[in-house]
Amino acid sequence: MIDGSPQRSLFDLTFDGLEQALTVAGLRPAHARTFWRALYRAAPGDLRARRDFLPPLRRWIEENAHVAGGWSAALPEVAADTRSSDGLTRKFLLRLADGHAVETVLMGYPGRFTACLSTQVGCAMGCVFCATGQAGFARHLRAGEIVAQVVHAQRALRAAGDDSALRNLVLMGMGEPLHNYDAVLRALAIVTDTRGLNLGPSRITISTVGVAPGIRRLAAENQPFHLAVSLHGASDEERGALVPVNHRWPLAELLDACRFYQQTTARKIFFEWTLIARANDSPAHARRLAALLAGFDAHVNLIPLNATVGFTADAASSATTAEFQRILRAAGLPSTVRQRRGLDVAAGCGQLRAERDWRVTAAPA
Ligand code: SAH
Ligand code: SF4
């Protein structure tokens, strides 16, 4: 891009949007299908050099390639690419067009990969144990910046010669997805489009700190994704000490929204509980959590606390965790202890903050 307005990202466009951009320029809508496939299915390469594109489409790409205000298929620059010592987790630091950076984590499982996506630069929710929250909020990501993380992850797998496909997405990286609702849902519509990336909606999980109006909206729109709600406390006092937005949407309001979600969608809800030694890991806590979720079709994800600079507490011991889980099971509440991954490269839950501190490049507040 030269001077003037920045280029617009093709990854911001839905299929219909791309079709419209092409028809406005006088092209036939049929070009959109070929172009969309190339964007999302083909190996990376210069789009201008593609032989399967007819001349009008090639001309359109040529005209837009390097002009201010034109459309670009550029992906964020990879500022760092770190692998955990067990080789199963890979963390990318991606530099966005305005200099901010976000992290995307790729986790390998037998035969498949899961990408953990960021939805904002930083986070405004301020959960005390989370590195992203400790660093504050810079800005929302655009839909195209979320889509680009998926495209990048898929290309990185391909470049590494890995046959296993990117199957699952979790919106559990930097940021609060429901604080950036429109861009997040637009990005998910793009990555699930069957003509392109074609990721299955039932393999995508939106994790929220508990933005009650956003949960209601997901339900009202019958969005086909999994919902995970971060709880961490079963009373307003205990939850509020860890998750400040509990003051805005207290437990009663949050659980009302969850009830509405479940009644409307009939979908199971995942509840996340980061286990912190002596703060929320006792048998009494487990019983209170079970009571709180009575009547829900729920699954609890127990997350061992990961270390962050701004929060000194220990993870619950494995004996305490097992006892916690036993109490939930006895109350009929299924749970899973999340595997700890990528800790040696600070890619675990709550550890993402884009190590080369993004605030250095942020505009003054
Ligand atoms: N903002 C969303 C999604 C990103 S955080 C949310 O809060 O749900 C993803 C998960 O990591 C959340 O359940 C969050 O509570 C958890 N988490 C944050 N910091 C953590 C830490 N230090 N150790 C373990 N889990 C953490
Ligand atoms: Fe934001 Fe989630 Fe971290 Fe809370 S846990 S500060 S909502 S990213």
Tell me roughly what share of residues is in helical segments: 25-40%
- Under CATH, the topology of the largest domain is which? TIM Barrel
Query: For the largest beta sheet, what order do the strands appear in spatially?
Result: 3-4-5-6-9-10-11-12-13-14
CATH superfamily of the largest domain: Aldolase class I
Tell me the CATH architecture of the largest domain.
Answer: Alpha-Beta Barrel
List keywords for this structure.
single chain, 365 residues, alpha/beta, TIM Barrel, 2 domains, ten-stranded mixed beta sheet, two-stranded parallel sheet, 33% helix, binds S-adenosyl-L-homocysteine, binds iron/sulfur cluster
SSE map:
Blueprint lengths: L7 E2 L5 H10 L5 H11 L14 H11 L5 E2 L4 E7 L5 E7 L5 E9 L2 E5 L3 E3 L8 H5 L1 E4 L2 H17 L5 E7 L9 H12 L11 E5 L3 H9 L5 E5 L5 H7 L8 H15 L3 E7 L7 H10 L5 E7 L13 H13 L4 E3 L28
Parallel strand pairs: 1-2, 6-9, 9-10, 10-11, 11-12, 12-13, 13-14
Antiparallel strand pairs: 3-4, 4-5, 5-6, 7-8
Helix pairs in contact: 1-2, 5-6, 7-9, 10-11
This protein binds S-adenosyl-L-homocysteine (SAH) and iron/sulfur cluster (SF4).
Any overview of this molecule?
- With 365 residues, the protein is an alpha/beta fold.
- It folds into two domains: 8-72, no CATH class; 77-357, Aldolase class I (TIM Barrel), CATH 3.20.20.70.
- The protein is built from eleven helices and 14 strands.
- The protein has helices at residues 15-24, 30-40, 55-65, 131-135, 143-159, 181-192, 212-220, 236-242, 251-265, 283-292, 318-330; strands at 8-9, 71-72, 77-83, 89-95, 101-109, 112-116, 120-122, 137-140, 165-171, 204-208, 226-230, 269-275, 298-304, 335-337.
- Helix 1 (15-24) crosses helix 2 and helix 5 (143-159) crosses helix 6 (181-192).
- Iron/sulfur cluster (SF4) binds at residues 123, 125-127, 130, 132-133, 175-176, 209, 350.
